[in-house]
Every structure is written in structure tokens, then in C-alpha cells.
Amino acid sequence: MQPDDCIFCNPKREILAENGQALAFFDSYPVARGHALIVPKRHALTIFELSEDECAARFRLAFPLKEVLQARFAPDGYNVGANCGAAAGQSVWHAHIHVIPRYAGDVPNPRGGIRGVIPHKANY
């Protein structure tokens, strides 16, 4: 069942890429130019509630999405990840993957990538 008030079940923004089970669109609160989300079409709270096919469909969509973002923004790299649960920072309760374009020099030292979610652990 798709909740009527879920902003990811009923996106009102440009669809950047789509397949049978997933779609991609820009994040409303981007942390970088081109920050996008990949969501399953079926409502599920976190990625751990998705079927294997739904998970695969979302990651397959990352490839055409990357081509769109590369053509529009020409980033130098990407971070790809998911927040699952309040303790991990999830704020919209519909499973989603963040695809965040990265640009040379956007942070002083990008080493560690997504390990930076816990800043004092990123420097290893």
C-alpha cells in the first residue's frame, strides 16, 4: 500500500531515471550539486524490507542515473549510501539510496568517504 502522504511514493519533481521497480529524482535538500535519490516504487520503510529483486532494481538504476548526473554536472566522484533508522539519520520513512556527486576540493580531505558520518572515526 502506498501512503498518500509519502513524498517518495508521490514525487512531485523531475524523474531522472526509472525502471520497472525503482525511480530516481533530485534530493530536496542536496548536500552537493546533483544529489539524487533512488527509491523503490513499492513503499517500504528501509532497504532491509525490500525484496532481492527490488534491491537489484535500485542498484541497476544507479548506472543510468550516474550517466545523467555526469552529463549535467561533471562530478569527479560519487558517494552512494543509505540511512536506515533514526539512529542512522533517516528522516523520510521510505527506503532510499543517496547518490551524491563529489567534486575535487569540495572538502579538504575526502579520504574515508562515507566513514565521515562519524567524524572522529573517518581519520584512519
What would a concise description of this structure say?
The protein is an alpha+beta fold and 124 residues long. It is 21% helix and 20% strand. A five-stranded antiparallel beta sheet has the order 1-2-3-5-4, with helices on one face.
Give the oligomeric state of the chains in this entry, treating copies of one chain as homo and distinct chains as hetero.
single chain
Structural class: alpha+beta
- Low-confidence runs of at least 5 consecutive residues: none
CATH topology tier name:
HIT family, subunit A
Shape: globular
CATH superfamily: HIT-like
Number of H/I helices: 2
Which strand order does the major sheet show? 1-2-3-5-4
Strand content: 15-25%
* Named CATH architecture: 2-Layer Sandwich
List keywords for this structure.
124 residues; 2 helices; 5 strands; 20% strand
Describe this structure in words.
The structure is a single chain. By secondary structure, this protein is α+β, with helices and mostly antiparallel strands. It has one domain (15-105): HIT-like (HIT family, subunit A, 2-Layer Sandwich). It is 21% helix and 20% strand. It has helices at 52-73, 119-122, and strands spanning 15-18, 22-26, 36-40, 77-81, 97-102. The chain has a 5-stranded antiparallel β-sheet, with helices on one face. The longest helix has 22 residues, at 52-73.
Topology of this protein?
Blueprint: E1 15-18, E2 22-26, E3 36-40, H1 52-73, E4 77-81, E5 97-102, H2 119-122
Antiparallel strand pairs: 1-2, 2-3, 3-5, 4-5
